[in-house]
Structure formats: structure tokens, C-alpha cells
């Protein structure tokens, strides 16, 4: 079993950091089995390719703009995810969508895929999350834990 | 009748760049380059501990993490006049060089080759002919007929199912696409192999930098890698031997595939040696320091005026006044306001980052990028500047690979192609490949130097910094994959008082400066042919040849838009 929980986002742009901050919290609050690899992907692209090859499951946590009120948390699964990343008009072109496409080309795409997305409130320059978005972390982590359970990975909250 | 074409955003780059061109008679007459994101990261740093700046600045951008970390610690060390252990230089050099190889390979194959290579045409190639062409050019083991056939079948499958994925944005069948199907197939095969090979460069960065994509081992004063000849959990000879294996795998690909492909593709696009000349004032800095102080470098750098290599003036040390005094930034055409007025440029130590947004004004302010100058003139930076300055400095490996690449182009094109051809759009790709081969050789040398020094019993990697009272100023420069990167820091009583990053893409993608002189993209686009204003592939070719990276990298995914890029021809 090989599972990755990947947090992405720019930690200098306020709520853009939510993906990174959420996976940091995951590591702090939960005891994770060795088959789960947690990656702070920042805004990286192709550098992530190797860590994401041949996974049983990939869970991506990212800031998303889906026309919902700030701090709304959404979940997309499997086929919905690459389509989601492909249609974006993000200025960050060579990020996750290209890595997913490269995994397809190399026939090393994850068996299961989930995206946990959080609608931002503020994207100005700054290294702290807004309180509203910071408050979504327990909900985000609960969804991550649920996704891990989907492939039979059990995690325990630290005492 | 002139036509205005707006590309917003330019795709397959990091960050948000808008390019406008005025087209008349099938050619670009005038161009504007506009950074569409505000990067106020410098303001975050004010008041912080200078020892933390590198970790914050490496988050500016997803592509350029390590380069900002390196420039930042160099700036603080320069301010403190702090010498670092030579092992720390070697380890940093290995990381920088491996990162550069990764960047150059990914840029050529994955971010720009599809401007020149038609994937759909590759499905029509004769795989045997394509393989035999590839074998006639190089001894690379991945050039077998079986491999070519396998890749072609795979691509046919993707095309048939409409799942082009990574290839979706290509201008297939565009009149400016000139490669025969066999050469297209050759490039696509190597595109896929490059995905495999880039991983080795990344592994080197990960092992030496303790983590990827964001390295963790850099520190003001050296590196945080404890060295040991045998102990676990530190950088041991055993782990360094694994690094050497990856270095060797990269070597084979860089010299037998990348350099050869650029020459072969370049030979078919010989007309592009006459487009994209633009600014031929070049700036590059020396890098790969060989001593703790930064007074000797394996790769030279300096300034070249008017495209004439005989004007070369060297930048010699980390304390070089000629470099430090020459840089300034203007905001006459940028969405910022200087407290002293916008008609004069400011030295980075005095730099200000106060936003002042107006609309896009052709003759006024139109970009979030500032406009840097070197002694009042806009410069072109990047691998072409680097290769030309190293060539001018008499750097033997550069001369060797530049000559080899130009000879190969001449053989394929059956006409003599000289170094002047490098002042062009396709020349920037060739220069990048030449630089990559030079960097590759240097990577091997730095590995040898580190091992030899450890063998002498020197395992020191860190000198503790001491922050005195009062004010210190320092600059850290680095010849990054996209060109000259400099960080400028003012420290007051141990805290950051001012911080400015002058990044390569600011030099190249700059708007007009305080004297209304255009930036490198703007100048290089003038004269470019445009076959179809609705599909301005030629503009992308020239802009992509710089490897743009508008270092601000916002990363919001947007479900509401389905349009990938807006091209407006009016």
C-alpha cells in the first residue's frame, strides 16, 4: 500500500497556504502508518513526479475557487479531479495538472484520487491564514481521514 | 492596417504574464510585456530575522525554490562579511547545478518543445526511419526502433481517445510547424524519456537538500548537512556514491539527447536564428564559488555590450562593486510608486515596493514588474547571456560545447552556422543546452572536490553568524537557470530593515524603463513573423525561449473558468 497526502499552495499568499498548513496539521495531530507519505508540495510541479508514481491513493489538499462562500470545503473524487485541474485558468500552469498528465503518460497514475478543496477568503501577500479559513482545518482533516479509510488506511488521533 | 493581439495569460509558464503585440504586414511592430500579479514578498521580510529570509523567499515560486534560498543566504553572508566552509560551497554548488539541469531539461522538453514539435504529426512518422535518424545523431540507448514504435502507439492511443492531457494546448498543424514527422516522433520519444531522467536531478537535490521541493539544509553560514565518512543519518560517502550514479545518468542524457535534439530541431528552424534578437546587452554573474569567501569561481560572468564579446567586462567576486553599483530599478511604467518620484530609478538597497495600480496604459503604467537596468540600460539575462560571457572569458568547457553544438547544426542544415546565430529565439534554446552540458561537467567536478576534501579529514560545513549592532548591507547573487538573480538586504541591529529581490524574469519581462527603453521580451518580439493573429504561436516561441517565470505563483484552482487562454485579436 502506497498513499500520499499532498498539500499544495503558496505559503506567502494568505489563504493560498491552506493545503500546506492542513497537511502540517495532519502530521501534528495524527499518528500515521508508514505507508502514508505526507508531502508539503508548495507550488512545485515536476519535482513531485517521482513521489506520486504508482500510488494506491493520492489525496490532494488545495485552495480552490468554486464560487462558494469563503471557507467552504469541497471534495472531488477520481475522474472529477484531473478534469478539475485541466479546466482551471490558474496562473500556476506547470503545477499539479501537468504532474497528473505526466503520470497518465507514464501509465503510473494513482489507483484512487481525491481532492479536498477550500475556498479562500483572502489571497493578499501574507504568511498567516485568515481565521475563517484556519478554522476549516478540522473539517479538512476529517475528510482526509475519511479518504484514507476508503483504501483501508486507519489513522489515530494523537493523545 | 495594424492589429492588436493580446495573450492573457501566456501559458506553460510559472506566474501570470500578459503579452500584447501590434501586428502589421504579418510582423510584430510593437510589444508590451505585463506581469499581472503583485509580488509583495519583500514587505513580508521587513522586521524579521535575516537567518529566516531564505526559507521565506524560497516560497516565492514553485519553479525556483532553491535559487532564492541560495541568493538569500549569500546576501546575508555578504552583509556580515561571513566566510563559509568550503564543504558548504561544494554542497550548495551540487544542489544548484543539479537544480539547473532539472530546470533546463524540463523547460526544453516539457514547457517549450511543443512550440516547435507537432505531436499529432509524430503519429504519421515511420518509426524505423525516425529511429535510424536518431541513431545517426547519437549513441543514446533509448533510440531503438522498438522504443520509437512503442511511444508512437501510445501517442496514437491518446490522440484517438481525445486524451492528449499534457499536450492539449498545442497549436497542431499550425503553418509555422516545420519538422518532418520523423523528427517530431524523435522529439516526442525524448520528451517521455526526459520525464524519467529529470527525476535523477531531483533526487540529487532531495538527498543533498534533505527535502524536496523545498530544500532544508541551507543556513546563513553554510549548510546544515553534518558530514561523516561512515555514520548513519548524515551525508555519508555511501549516499554520495548514489548521487554519483544519478550524475552519470544525467550526463548521458544531457550530452547524447538534449544537446543533440536542440541542434537537430534548430537546424530545421534556421529562419528562427534571424528572429528574436532584441536586446544584445548581456548580463551574467560568476557562480560555483571555489573558496569560502567567493573570490574564485568555476563559471565566470560579466557584462557584454552591443552583442560584441570583445567588450566583455568581468564580474569578479561576491564583493564586486561594478555589479553592486550598477543595478537599479525603475517604476515609470510599473504599478508602483516611489516616494522620490517615478522618473528616476532606485538602487535596490533603497528600493520601495508600494503598489499603485492604474489600468493597462500603453504609454503609462502597465505591469506589476519593475524595470531593472545595469548602468541605465536594460539587459538580457539567462543562459544566452551566461554562455556568451563565459565564451568571452575564455571558459574552455563553454567553448567546447558551443562549438560542438554549432558544428552539429551546420552539418544538419548543410550551411555554416556561427556564434552570431545565438542572438535569436532559437539561439536561446541552443545556449541553454550548451549551458546544461557545461553545468553537467561542473557537477561531476564539484562531487570530486567534495569527496577529496572530506578525504583530507575536513568535515566542517557551518560557521556561526554573528549579528553586530548597527546597519549592514549585502547583496547575494546567483546565476540561476533563468539568469542573474540578486537579493539585496539591509540589516539593522540584527533585523531586516529592507529587502529586495531582483529576479531574472524581471530583467527579461520588464516593461519600458524610466527612459522608455523596452525590456528584453518587448524588444525581442519586434520583427517576429505572425502567420495567424488568432493563433500567435510565434509570440509564444520567442517569449518561451526565455523560460519565463513570473515569480509569484498564485495557485488557486478555478472551477468557474473553462477557457485555458484568451487570445484577443482586435
UniProtKB/TrEMBL annotation, chain A:
Stored InterPro entries: Pept_A31_hyd_express, Pept_HybD-like_dom_sf, Peptidase_A31
Origin: domain of life: Bacteria
Record bears the keyword Disulfide bond: no
GO molecular function terms noted in the UniProt entry: aspartic-type endopeptidase activity; enzyme activator activity; metal ion binding
One example of a Gene Ontology biological process annotation: protein processing
Binding site for Ni(2+): 16, 62, 92
Pfam families according to UniProt: HycI
Keyword hit for Hydrolase: yes
Annotated keywords: Aspartyl protease, Hydrolase, Metal-binding, Nickel, Protease
Similarity comment text for this entry: Belongs to the peptidase A31 family.
Name listed for the protein in its UniProt record: HyaD/HybD family hydrogenase maturation endopeptidase
Species name: Azospira restricta
TrEMBL record, chain B:
GO MF, one annotated term: ferredoxin hydrogenase activity
InterPro entries given in the database record: Ni-dep_hyd_lsu, Ni-dep_hyd_lsu_Ni_BS, NiFe-Hase_large, NiFe/NiFeSe_hydrgnase_LSU
Subunit structure as annotated in this protein's UniProt entry: Heterodimer of a large and a small subunit.
PROSITE patterns listed in its UniProt record: NI_HGENASE_L_1, NI_HGENASE_L_2
Recorded topology in the membrane: Peripheral membrane protein
Family: Belongs to the [NiFe]/[NiFeSe] hydrogenase large subunit family.
Record: residues binding Fe cation: 64, 549
Listed name of the protein: hydrogenase (acceptor)
Keyword Secreted (UniProt): no
Binding site for Ni(2+): 61, 64
Species assigned in the record: Azospira restricta
EC numbers on record: 1.12.99.6
The entry's keywords: Iron, Magnesium, Metal-binding, Nickel, Oxidoreductase
Cellular compartments per GO CC: plasma membrane
